[in-house]
From TrEMBL:
Pfam families the record matches: DUF4429, SHOCT
Domain of life where this protein originates: Bacteria
Name the record gives this protein: Tat pathway signal sequence domain protein
Domain DUF4429, residue spans: 12-106, 140-228
Domain SHOCT, residue spans: 254-281
InterPro entries, per database record: DUF4429, SHOCT
Length: 284
């Protein structure tokens, strides 16, 4: 097709086998769109096209992605609001005839594959390295492993006892993302060796970070979850991870101080205090 259709917050460029979506960076553009920048959606990743009336004199053209074709939508699991739907282009109602034309053109190009899940991800995942700040720690992903570094102001005693965590992609089976805009939002890593025991609350689970007001926003935590999910699904041999860099002595001192407070409060035993303190000192 080779045509371009501009709407609110995004521009769609139509090709014979894909739609290139470029998101605007205006102050009114959803932050998720700004974080995504642009995305190429192969038509093989689309199972349908709709055109519906929008709010306040608008129409909405939307691509319906196939299950399993886009790691971002898999990670979101239906939790995104309409305003943050990256497959939805909103246009003024006076452009409805033009939108209808493109909807009909797309319907002719979309493969008749039905709602069958895609065998592999067809839409590129956000690129690593990625990181974001959760309420109880910092999460980082370098493409091969995920690291959780606990915050002394927010992490539970269970997480402090467990220490900072590192998870190789090869040891994971998936990711559980719960929107920070909902109650008990969190990001949990799912191990390959699934336990039959009852799931631990994210606040107590060393394989999870919890969100909160201003922590783990959608535009940071969702692309992170999608990148990890894509790496898990397409994992190959895991490269040797380089030795971690030396920690800031001031940071180590602060962690030992907080550990001492937990010890005095009776939340950490003498043995746990001595062991963890020695572990932190070894990082200097």
């Amino acid at each position: 097709m080779g045509d371009v259709l501009a709407g609110f917050h995004a521009v769609w460029e139509f090709e014979s086998d894909s739609v290139l979506i470029r998101y605007e960076r205006g102050i009114r553009t959803p932050k998720l769109f700004q974080a995504l920048g642009e995305r190429r959606i192969p038509l093989s990743a689309v199972e349908g096209v709709t055109l519906t009336p929008g709010r306040r004199g608008t129409v909405a053209l939307r691509l319906r992605p196939r299950p399993g074709a886009d790691p971002l939508m898999d990670a979101a699991a239906g939790q995104l609001s309409e305003a943050c739907d990256p497959y939805r282009l909103v246009l003024p109602a006076e452009r409805s005839t033009l939108a209808e034309y493109y909807a009909d053109e797309l319907k002719q190009l979309v493969p008749d594959g039905g709602p069958e899940p895609a065998e592999r991800y067809l839409v590129a995942a956000p690129e690593a390295p990625l990181q974001f700040k959760a309420y109880d720690g910092k999460a980082a992903f370098d493409g091969t492993s995920v690291q959780f570094r606990w915050s002394w102001t927010g992490a539970s005693s269970a997480k402090w006892k467990a220490g900072d965590q590192s998870f190789a992609v090869a040891d994971l089976s998936g990711v559980e993302w719960r929107s920070p805009e909902a109650f008990e939002g969190h990001l949990r890593l799912l191990p390959r060796a699934a336990s039959s025991a009852e799931a631990v609350h994210p606040d107590q689970d060393p394989a999870a970070v919890v969100f909160g007001l201003g922590y783990g926003p959608v535009h940071e935590s969702l692309p992170f979850a999608a990148a990890v999910l894509a790496a898990v699904r397409t994992r190959g041999p895991v490269p040797v991870t380089p030795a971690p860099a030396r920690r800031d002595p001031a940071d180590i001192a602060e962690r030992i101080r907080h550990l001492g407070e937990l010890h005095q409060a009776g939340l950490v035993t003498d043995e746990e205090f001595s062991s963890k303190k020695a572990e932190l000192l070894a990082e200097l």
